[in-house]
Amino acid sequence: MFDAEQSMQLLKAREVTRQSGLARFTSTLVVGSTGGDMVETSRGEQDFGRGTAYAERTVSIPDDFPERVADEVDPPGNQTFAIVARQVLVRDGATWLRYRPTGAGAVAYAMRSLRRFAGESAPYGGTLAEVIASARPQGRPVVREDGGRDYRATVPGGVAVAALPRGLRQMKGDWNSEVGKGKSAWFPLNVRLDSRGRVVRATMDLTPLLAHMRQVEGVKNIRARYELSGYGGRATRLLPDPAEAQDATKGWLYINQLEPGYCAVTAPGLPSVSTVREVSCDRRHDLRVISHRAEVQGSEAAGGDPVLKQAGEWCREAVSMAPEEWTRDAAPAGRSHVVSDSGQVRTTTDEGKKRTRQMHLFTCYLRTSAPGS
């Protein structure tokens, strides 16, 4: 492996790693801000030979984390995934759920988004494993005493973006991540291989991407880390049979279908609060809807960042006017959130001409920590 051309060694490291059977892994993403760090951690086991994985994933977001950024990333909490036969299963208590992303619309889109957890370079996706094979070594690697190698490399921006949370992948219009378009299109990656050429660790400072990202006000840095150990060990987790998993496709709604004052639980494993199931507010619930608002593109408030800023202001006002019964179990107290959906509407001008315009539908909601009384 180390006899290969230097430019090909990290690509070959992916193949060597794939041939190494089961390994334990930890993947960490830290989004630093003026209000503390959002931390996303996945840890578990990956069997590269069988293409299976078991992962326990935790997302923590401090109370003072930038509100608009928090609304774009996965909600805080714990999730457990199993990857079997390229299917992503989600544990809900003692039950394993299987989502079938059929049909169209926001709910189907949310279910299809689970595919990101079925990786291409490793059984569990959304980690730096997906970017290593595309890395270009910079200079000769450092040879360690144990025979392993440490590489400094760069990764094309279009690949580096894959390591970001789904909600932070919105780039500015002048974003250019094509290979060969200049130094600004490449981002640094450090990779450590063991003496057999297997990946041991990869770290990446994604902070340079902030210059190209939208809606990241208050974010100071983004760092990712991926570690593998215990190659060749035995599995310690019993993986579910996809055929026996419960079909979780039915019963979910998009959040904008709930009436103000109604409560809901979020769908286990799905990447946002957009997909929910209505429950009584007397039972455990994850959120309560406060209000809805529609904006049509071309109106004063529509389009890009201004409309999002105004939506946040509208939501805070709506919360201040809501009944105390709706707001008393908010967590944290007084912190409101906005989720948006968009679509097209057709209108007719005074001259009888048809015109298609963009409509944004905003839902103001509160995250909750306990059932209502």
Walk me through the structure.
By secondary structure, this protein is mainly beta. The protein contains seven helices and 19 strands. The protein has helices at 9-18, 67-70, 106-112, 129-132, 157-160, 304-321, 324-327, and strands at 22-33, 36-47, 52-60, 77-84, 87-92, 95-98, 136-137, 142-143, 149-156, 186-193, 199-205, 219-229, 246-247, 253-254, 263-266, 275-279, 287-296, 336-348, 354-367. The strands form two sheets. Strands 1, 2, 3, 4, 5, 6, 7, 8, 9, 10, 11, 12 and 13 form a 13-stranded mixed sheet that branches. Strands 14-16-15-17-19-18 form a six-stranded antiparallel sheet. Strand 1 (22-33) and strand 2 (36-47) form a beta hairpin. The longest helix is centred in the C-terminal third of the chain and has 18 residues, at 304-321. The chain is globular.
Could you estimate the helical fraction of the residues in percent?
Answer: 10-25%
Rg, rounded, reads 23 Å
Which spans have pLDDT < 50 for at least 5 consecutive residues?
Answer: 299-303
Mean pLDDT metric: 85
State the major sheet. 13 strands, mixed
- Gross morphology: globular
List the helices and strands and how they pair.
Blueprint: H1 9-18, E1 22-33, E2 36-47, E3 52-60, H2 67-70, E4 77-84, E5 87-92, E6 95-98, H3 106-112, H4 129-132, E7 136-137, E8 142-143, E9 149-156, H5 157-160, E10 186-193, E11 199-205, E12 219-229, E13 246-247, E14 253-254, E15 263-266, E16 275-279, E17 287-296, H6 304-321, H7 324-327, E18 336-348, E19 354-367
Parallel strand pairs: 6-13
Antiparallel strand pairs: 1-2, 1-12, 2-3, 3-4, 4-5, 5-6, 7-9, 8-9, 9-10, 10-11, 11-12, 14-16, 15-16, 15-17, 17-19, 18-19
